[in-house]
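Lab meeting notes turned into a lecture example. A postdoc, R.K., suggested we walk through two folding results consecutively so the class can see how the record format repeats. The first protein's sequence and structure tokens come next.
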Amino acid sequence: MTPLQPLLARSCGLLLLTTLVACAFVDDPVARAMRKVTPYRIEVVQGNFVSKEQVQALRPGMTRNQVKEILGTPLIASVFHADRWDYAFTIQRKGTQPQQRKLSVFFQNEVFYRYEADELPSESEFAERLTTSEERKKVPRLQATPQELDKFKSQTSVSNAPDTAPEANSARKQYPPLESPVK
């Protein structure tokens, strides 16, 4: 082993390490774009959405079938709590806050007598909360001044004017009839 070999090995190692460290500081547009890419997250909707209007339609004394017609099939109808139906609803969308609501309907002698619920939104409030902030951006109002409208009208009237001089060389084409004459 010559005295230069350990020095040469260390120099090669130092050069390799310096090269690798330098790669971390290169501003690569592809790598920058890849950092912005996020995986697709599916919308998760679970349970039955129950609105404020639906709950307001419930009346004490309604049968289970009548309650089911208004609210839909309960998410949980437990054997251990035969006199209670539970409705739960969750939704998670990208760009919006997750929403979660719970409603319990209680029966006595097979008829509805009360409910317990989180604060339930109306149908319009719920629909408004579904839109993302990007979807809520206001569309600018499109207005034109009377001068701009007059200018537009004059441009369209000139371009829509029929040609008064038909081409002299154009011959009229004759097509055969689609059906043969009746004999």
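The second example is placed directly after the first for contrast:
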Amino acid sequence: MPKVSHLFFRAGILFLIVGIGLGLIMSISQQHDVIGAHAHINLLGWVTSALFGGYYALNPAKAEGMLPRVHFWLYTAGVAIMSVSLYLLLKGNTGMEPLVAVGSLLTAAGVLIAAYVIFTPAAAGRMQPAE
């Protein structure tokens, strides 16, 4: 399995642990004021990271080179920044709004890189798995 797949799966499982933990805290305390952060951590952090990891695992030729690594670091940093700052924003810290925006833009840039990777053919000359 390509290294970038492992990176996406590892990041995804860490996001899942945080998301589940946050969900448990909300459930136990009966305070659901940060449900938006919980949802973003689980959907963007766990689910989407796992999908990216799976895509690269199924398309190892596309997991080669610098772009997949940039994709991983940009997307993961964006989700982490957005999730933490969104949590703090929902807890009442309005000063976090610019960081939510920065994290969102980084995450969106990561998604655009994913779209580029998915829609462009693998580099000529590289072995591709049988379809």
